[in-house]
Amino acid sequence: MCVNGNRVERSDFWVDLGRDRVTLDGRAVREGKRYYLLLYKPTGFLTTYKDPAGRPTVYDLLKDFDHWIFPVGRLDLDTSGLLLMTNDAQFGERLTNPAFKVPKTYQLKCSTILSEAQLDRLRSGVTLDDGPTRQAVVTRLRDSEKYSHVELTITEGRNRQVRRMIEAVGGKVLKLVRTSIGEIRIGNLKIGKHRPLTPEELSGLMRRGGRGKRPKTA
Ligand code: URA
Question: What is the chain written as a DSSP string?
Answer without folding.
Answer: -EETTEE---TT----TTTS-EEETTEEPPP----EEEEEEPTT-BSSS--TT---BGGGGGTT--S--EESS---TTEEEEEEEES-HHHHHHHH-GGG---EEEEEEESSPPPHHHHHHHHH--EETTEEPPP-EEEEEEE-SS-EEEEEEES---TTHHHHHHHHTT--EEEEEEEEETTEE-TTPPTT-EEEPPHHHHHHHIIIIISSPPPTT-
